[in-house]
Design brief:
Largest sheet: 8 strands, parallel
Strand order of the largest sheet: 4-13-12-11-10-7-6-5
Structural class: alpha/beta
Helix content: 40-55%
Strand content: 5-15%
Number of strands: 15
Number of domains: 2
Length: 520
């Protein structure tokens, strides 16, 4: 607006004082027109919040590949850059081609390089993506989960418009959105997308004044038509074993209402649950959640730690005859702006090891056929998803990639409430930059393209259904001249093996696992 006013002033001066003022009036008018267009367009959130100046970002984005090549040629860090996953997500979200020529940017002879094994007889790509039936023998209302869904992100951490865009995208694409532990808001409910309602240690949205679990409020909200599954969060990959703090300054009236907390007061999520203290109590509470929800699938999410503790939960399931309908394994590589650096870098099991442990334990305990496993932790491409399916998952969840799809540019200003694109802010002016309709379509396109990519990869491997994937189909280079398949890298248990004759590497943990104590 300032540029428009300055252009008008210069034009007036040109008419009344000197024609030389046109030299200033014309460029100022051009800047003003660009600024007005930036403010009114709906495709680019950066330009809506930063008209004119925001174009500098797109200029840098254009020259970025050349800058990367400059550094690669000089080999400043001793190795080539990996392909930028963000650009793959952005291109798929925008509906543009994600192919890049000239081969891989990874060193295929470097230890740690992984690849999926193609077949000499590829199969046709299925026309319709397969769904995963969530619901064990005690579930009255099973749910068919998509292969890729929106992972847990709370309203409060995300803006209202971001939550709306994610849920509308899920509704259009036929996949589910995990609410995160911040409560069940109107922005999750309004578009009508399928929901996995997650509750954590704070029991936000189903909480008594003293911070305990409110069974009545939970039952009322869980009965909602769009709530398809209910989930208990035990731990989060980026910060397992600690709670969270929401400063009182951020607890406005709306967030207070959604979370059942006092407005303006600091909210603390404890690191532990009040509803259980033993493996047996955990299993019984999952059964209670399923009953209160009217028979909908109930499960829990964790970043695995002690294998002995998880085996204790398996023993509790066997003794009580109760199983969750699903378990979400959250890898330590998952992200959040609320994690202390030491936790993010040094605490928690990476997703690969966590998935293999949970899958193997359930198989060995004879429980795997009753429980579905979800995987979350840096899933952004079709190849990521297929790898996780090989490692033991039934479906995947994505958080960071979904944030990219709604416009996140990784400015790392989440904690400041000054997100430049309106994704992680409660500032109404900044949040308005995120156009819900445009970003919802991007979310839908990204999920559809990623699942389609996963199906194409599986077809190239001679597989038409995820259930046909096997550990030998994923290889890992463990040394420059040594390659091992995942079948060789891990000890895969057979159904019920722990109940009959536990292998030597599992025997001590299985023996020590106690369904009435979380023994480390």
């Amino acid at each position: 607006m300032a540029a428009v006013a300055a252009a008008l002033a210069a034009a007036g001066a040109a008419a009344m004082v000197s024609p030389w003022y046109w030299a200033a009036a014309v460029p100022l008018a051009a800047v003003g027109v660009i600024g007005v267009w930036d403010l009114t367009q709906r495709r680019h959130s950066v330009l809506r919040n930063y008209p004119v100046l925001g174009h500098a970002r797109f200029l840098l984005e254009r020259i970025r590949p050349e800058l990367q090549q400059y550094f690669v040629e000089r080999n400043f860090d001793g190795r080539p850059f990996d392909r930028d996953v963000r650009s793959i997500v952005y291109e798929r979200a925008k509906g543009t081609a994600a192919e890049e020529p000239f081969g891989t940017e990874r060193d295929v002879y470097e230890a740690g390089y992984e690849y999926l094994v193609p077949s000499m007889v590829p199969r046709p790509v299925p026309k319709d993506p397969p769904r995963v039936r969530i619901g064990g023998p005690d579930c009255a209302k099973p749910y068919d989960m998509a292969l890729l869904n929106v992972s847990a992100m709370s309203f409060g951490s995300l803006s209202a418009n971001a939550v709306l865009a994610l849920n509308r995208g899920a509704a259009k694409g036929g996949f589910a959105q995990d609410t995160g532990e911040g409560g069940l808001s109107e922005y999750h409910l309004r578009p009508g997308g399928d929901l996995v309602w997650e509750i954590g240690t704070g029991y936000f949205g189903c909480r008594t004044k003293d911070g305990d679990f409110d069974a009545g409020e939970f039952a009322e909200k869980a009965s909602g038509e769009t709530v398809r599954c209910v989930s208990l969060k035990l731990s989060q990959g980026a910060k397992p074993g600690i709670g969270g703090v929401l400063p009182g300054a951020k607890v406005n009236a709306e967030i207070a209402r959604v979370r059942d907390v006092p407005e303006g007061q600091t909210v603390i999520s404890p690191p532990y649950h009040r509803v259980f203290s033993t493996p047996r109590e955990l299993v019984l509470f999952i059964a209670r959640m399923r009953e209160l929800s009217g028979g909908k699938p109930a499960g829990f999410k964790l970043c695995p730690g002690s294998r002995r503790q998880f085996l204790a939960v398996c023993k509790a399931m066997i003794e009580e005859g109760i199983t969750p309908d699903f378990i979400i394994v959250d890898g330590a590589e998952g992200g959040t702006g609320a994690a202390p650096l030491e936790f993010a870098d040094h605490v928690g099991t990476p997703l690969t090891e966590g998935l293999v442990t949970v899958h193997d334990a359930l198989v060995g305990a004879g429980l795997r056929d009753r429980i579905r496993i979800g995987a979350s932790g840096k899933i952004a491409t079709g190849a990521d998803l297929v790898k996780r399916l090989v490692q033991g998952a039934d479906y995947g969840n994505a958080a960071r990639a979904m944030m990219f799809a709604v416009g996140c540019i990784q400015a790392q200003r989440c904690h400041t409430n000054r997100c430049p694109v309106g994704v992680t802010t409660q500032d109404p002016r900044r949040a308005r930059a995120l156009d819900v309709g445009d970003k919802a379509e991007r979310v839908r396109r990204f999920q559809e393209a990623t699942v389609s990519s996963a199906l194409e990869i599986m077809a190239s491997m001679g597989v038409t259904d995820p259930a046909q994937l096997r550990p030998h189909m994923l290889r890992r280079r463990v040394a420059p001249h040594i390659v091992r398949s995942y079948e060789e890298l891990h000890e895969w248990l057979s159904p019920g093996q722990l109940l009959v004759e536990p292998p030597s590497l599992w025997a001590a943990d299985w023996k020590a696992a106690d369904p009435d104590h979380f023994t480390i």
